[in-house]
Amino acid sequence: DTAVSQTPKYLVTQMGNDKSIKCEQNLGHDTMYWYKQDSKKFLKIMFSYNNKELIINETVPNRFSPKSPDKAHLNLHINSLELGDSAVYFCASSLTNTEAFFGQGTRLTVV
Amino acid sequence: GDSVTQMEGPVTLSEEAFLTINCTYTATGYPSLFWYVQYPGEGLQLLLKATKADDKGSNKGFEATYRKETTSFHLEKGSVQVSDSAVYFCALSDRDSSYKLIFGSGTRLLVRP
To answer: If DSSP codes are grouped into helix, strand and coil, which group holds residue B59?
Structure first.
């Protein structure tokens, strides 16, 4: 069973479109995250939810909107996609103050 | 704020060579320290961790010791294999940063037969 699963794995879309990435974890964790990995492999936190409550919101354009319908799901919606949004987006989950488990990533390409 | 600095790669080694990847950190609190590995085309996997000073994390022949006096968490392996070729990330988390993971820039390791 996949612990942290995100869909889709690949996403190619045109500038200006709106797209969503979904994430689900079956580990019973209370905290979920979105990280962005750029073309140089640098990883940076975008958002974090604890028990469905937003606790971390880094400096991210407001075109990015996370939604957590329950503790096991954290989705990321992106409006008006730009070329610079092309990256790999990773979902992760953890119990508070323990190691995070990562999904396989969603490679977003904006053309 | 908290930060992690790790040696730039790529690191290229022959099979069975000794590996060291340096990692140092800056933190206001008492962080937990991690090494994650990313194989080509895959997500990040936890390799090892240490939660307090002098703890040694180990897994799959890799080791790292939490050194508070030098604020370091260097990754070592005595004999690398071709299958160890990947990108290695040092990371920390602590309460002052709401337990988010702060990553180093990653070090690519290439092991040649």
So the answer is: strand
Q: Are A66 and A56 in contact (CB under 8 A)?
A: no
Which tens digits make up the pLDDT trace of B53-93?
Answer: 999 999 999 999 999 999 999 999 999 999 999 999 999 99
Whether the CB of B89 is below 8 Å from some CB of chain A: the reply is yes
Q: What is the 3-state secondary structure (H, E, C) of A20-72?
A: EEEEEECCCCCEEEEEEECCCCCEEEEEEEECCEEEEECCCCCCEEEEEEECC
Residue found by looking up tokens 């040092």 in the block: B90
Of residues A34, A76, A90, A47, the one with CA closest to residue B44: A90
Whole-number Å distance between alpha carbons of A25 and B45: 15
- What residues of B are in contact with residue A97 (Cβ under 8 Å)? 32, 93, 95, 99
Residue contact B105–A40, C-beta within 8 A:
yes
Could you report the per-residue pLDDT of A93-108, keeping only the tens digit for each?
998 778 899 999 999 9
- Do the Cβ atoms of A31 and B42 come within 8 Å? no
Strands B107-112 and B11-14: what pairing?
Answer: parallel
CB B33 within 8 A of CB B83: no
CA dihedral B21, B27, B32, B36 (to 10 degrees): -40
